[in-house]
Design goal:
By secondary structure, the chain is of the alpha/beta class. The chain is about 40% helix and about 15% strand.
């Protein structure tokens, strides 16, 4: 009973005809639900089509690395789909200070547009009574996390956020939890060199985190470097359970219940 709380099944790295087989492999290892995320308007309908499967749900948003290509009314266009039963949250949105500004953009203007879009996503989530999925990434330091957390603080009374693919220290995770938010752990938590995130995952209370693949990216050990997919979440779950000193069944149960509450999932499985 595992839930992959974050993947990108409409990625160009997955051929549409592969999706049934990918979901079948996930089912074989105990994955019962999958959340696939929109990152730009162009992949909205592809994700909605995949979510025709009753156990696949989608989140709709504009990834921070795509804000320079998105129209100013992108969130208004997304608003037309928030009542669709296949849509379970807003995102992936957030702040990415890792990648340099695209050609023709200064770093200041690029980051400012990301922050504007993040606030627009929060407004959209609040209006639709949905929660939100946040991405942060830095070359060094934690500026994107700090800026995103400050914006979340403005909205935490009306919207709950998950900081996905969390790799920060326990102190930062606790700040998210203190606002009523969640964190989510992916394949990085299986890397032996990722001491910080492994300690964070060990300390997070049950009910405060979800697990994810971020497929097709960041495959866990022993698949590191390969194309990731939802079935690989079992390896992450096994290693997190061992790290935390609990059974796989226990981890699967509380992380799936956390996902069900956050995404308000209908009762179906793949």
């Amino acid at each position: 009973m595992l839930t992959d709380s974050h993947c990108h099944l409409a990625s160009h790295r997955f051929a549409p005809e592969e999706i049934p087989e990918i979901l079948s492999r996930a089912r074989e290892v105990g994955v019962t639900r999958v959340i696939t995320l929109v990152t730009r308007l162009e992949d909205l309908h592809a994700n909605l089509a995949i979510a025709q499967d009753p156990a696949v749900h989608t989140c709709i948003g504009i990834h921070p690395c795509d804000v320079h290509q998105a129209p100013d009314d992108a969130c208004a266009q997304l608003a037309a789909f928030t009542a669709d039963p296949r849509v379970c949250a807003i995102g992936e949105t957030g702040l990415d200070y890792y990648h340099p500004a695209p050609e023709g953009w200064s770093e200041e203007k690029y980051r400012d547009r990301q922050r504007q879009f993040l606030r627009q996503h929060f407004d959209l989530a609040a209006a639709a009574s949905l929660n939100i999925v946040i991405h942060t990434r830095d070359q060094e330091g934690s500026d994107s996390f700090e800026d995103a957390l400050a914006i979340y603080q403005e909205y935490h009374d009306s919207v709950r956020a998950v900081f996905h693919c969390f790799i920060g220290p326990w102190e930062n995770a606790r700040r998210v939890l203190d606002l009523g938010g969640l964190v989510s752990f992916g394949g990085v938590a299986t890397f032996k060199s990722a001491h910080q995130v492994r300690e964070t995952a060990r300390q997070c209370p049950a009910g405060s985190f979800m697990i994810e693949t971020d497929a097709p990216y960041l495959a866990p050990e022993p698949y590191r470097g390969k194309r990731n997919e939802p079935s690989f979440i079992r390896k992450t779950a096994e290693q997190l359970a061992a790290l935390r000193g609990e059974s796989l069944d226990t981890l699967a149960k509380h992380s799936t219940q956390t996902s069900e509450r956050f995404f308000r999932l209908r009762q179906n499985s793949i």
